[in-house]
Specification:
This protein has one domain: q2cbj1_9rhob like domain (Jelly Rolls, Sandwich). Helix content is 27%, strand content 30%. It has helices at 2-37, 48-53, 79-89, 127-140, and strands at residues 60-66, 69-74, 94-95, 98-99, 106-107, 114-118, 151-156, 160-167, 173-174, 177-179, 186-189, 192-195, 197-199, 206-210, 225-226, 229-231, 233-242. A hairpin with a 2-residue loop joins strand 1 (60-66) and strand 2. 29% of the residues are buried.
């Protein structure tokens, strides 16, 4: 009993430190978004072109959950940027595969109806891609060099620490991004009411979420999935960010 109490006493300062760290991190994040929203206080920008690159005054952050950390950035991409990204991706889209249990190889499946591709190293040098990647870095506060190549996905009818999911099309019914462990309410997922939070795939919006908590541990509550697309085509682009430089 005495040893158990001693361990408990040793854990209290550690837990208090972790809790304070999580609270401080949340407050800093919130302060950062307020500065972005009121960009008149941001004085480090080199010129108006950089402000335009970051879409200051247009991007509107909305924190929908702190545990897990989920932030929707309305108007993160312009309509022209969405169309540009789709034009890059369309010629090289490949049907997504599933693993064949017998061979261990990827095979096409009638139950998987999505297609995808990654931006190439050469395409990453394009001005539009560079602008978007810098914007992702600024709003996520994760260095550009820690980011993986952007992946595109289309659906008809170290460790990764954060993900930026960008929506490229409108007129989509269903296709929400569902976080079943977030919040304590219900939301519509592909026309069905489910527990958790759902983010609608509005063109130009982006959702940023962390798979690692402020305490440095994996946040199991960040589990998510795509809801069924009932009508239209849901195009998205995904940027994963890691703890260390991605090479």
């Amino acid at each position: 009993m005495g040893m158990a109490r001693a361990r408990a006493r040793r854990l209290v300062p550690l837990l208090t430190f972790v809790t304070l760290g999580m609270i401080l991190g949340s407050l800093l994040q919130l302060a950062f978004f307020r500065r972005i929203d009121d960009h008149s206080h941001i004085t480090h920008l080199e010129n108006d072109q950089e402000a335009a690159l970051l879409r200051l005054g247009l991007v509107k952050p909305e924190v929908i959950s702190w545990s897990p950390r989920i932030i929707v950035f309305h108007n993160f991409l312009s309509s022209e940027e969405c169309d540009y990204l789709r034009a890059i991706a369309r010629p090289r889209l490949q049907v997504s595969t599933v693993v064949d249990v017998a061979t261990g190889k990827g095979v096409k499946s009638s139950v998987r109806t999505s297609s995808g591709m990654f931006v190439s190293s050469e395409e990453r040098k394009l001005p539009v891609i560079q602008a978007i990647e810098k914007r992702i870095s600024v709003y996520s506060q994760v260095p550009e060099e820690n980011g993986e190549l952007i992946q595109f996905n289309i659906k008809r009818g170290g460790q990764r620490v954060a993900t930026m999911l960008m929506y490229l099309t409108d007129g989509v019914e269903g296709g929400e991004t569902h976080f079943p462990q977030a919040g304590d309410g219900e939301c519509s997922c592909g026309g069905k009411m489910v527990k958790g939070l759902c983010v609608k795939p509005n063109k130009g919006d982006a959702v940023l979420f962390w798979s690692m908590g402020l305490d440095g541990e994996t946040d199991q509550n960040s589990i998510h999935s795509g809801c069924p697309v009932l009508e239209g085509e849901k195009w998205s682009a995904t940027k994963w960010m890691r703890q260390k430089e991605f090479v």
